[in-house]
UniProtKB/TrEMBL annotation:
Origin organism lineage: Bacteria, Pseudomonadati, Pseudomonadota, Gammaproteobacteria, Cellvibrionales
PANTHER family, sorted: ANTITERMINATION NUSB DOMAIN-CONTAINING PROTEIN, N UTILIZATION SUBSTANCE PROTEIN B-RELATED
Keyword set, alphabetical order: RNA-binding, Transcription, Transcription antitermination, Transcription regulation
This protein's GO CC annotations: cytosol
Protein name listed in UniProt: Transcription antitermination protein NusB
Superkingdom to which the source organism belongs: Bacteria
Residue ranges annotated for the NusB/RsmB/TIM44 domain, each copy included: 9-133
InterPro entries reported for this sequence: NusB-like_sf, NusB_fam, NusB_RsmB_TIM44
Length: 146
């Protein structure tokens, strides 16, 4: 399958939902992934990317949270579950997937926050991820602002 922007978008969509479920229920990641693969039409989804996001966030959770929590105005436990899932996933992407432009990561997170998050969560997500991008992608951000 050729990886399209749409396939990546679906991978992020499902990964955010799977991370949400993992946070809320504490279920086994492999069981959650199998459930998503069974219950959803994954034919137009970048499944390897979905897998990487889901397992990468869980495997590197302390590192990922250490990156974005310094910019929070509250404890991480006080974040709504959608925002927490999005910050975890997007911070992982900014840190580990330098092949994906930082603006794409942020825009996708903002779109998911608008769709699934509480009112105005997208503004909060955007502000935090902008700061994470400056830290994790300083060369790319500086070149972009040029």
């Amino acid at each position: 399958m050729t990886v399209t922007a749409s396939a990546r978008r679906k991978a992020r969509h499902y990964a955010m939902q799977a991370l949400y479920q993992w946070q809320m229920a504490g279920s086994n990641l492999n069981a959650i992934e199998a459930e998503f693969r069974t219950d959803n039409d994954m034919s137009k989804t970048d499944v390897p990317y979905f897998h990487e996001l889901l397992h990468g966030v869980a495997k590197n959770l302390d590192e990922v949270e250490g990156i974005y929590t310094e910019y929070l105005d509250r404890d991480v436990e006080e974040l709504d579950p959608v925002s927490r899932a999005l910050l975890r996933m997007s911070t992982f992407e900014l840190k580990n997937r330098i092949d994906v432009p930082y603006k794409v990561v942020i825009n996708e997170a903002v779109a998911l926050a608008k769709k699934f998050g509480p009112t105005d969560a997208f503004k909060f997500i955007n502000g935090i991820l902008d700061k994470v991008a400056v830290k994790e992608r300083s060369v790319e951000v500086k070149a972009d602002k040029g």
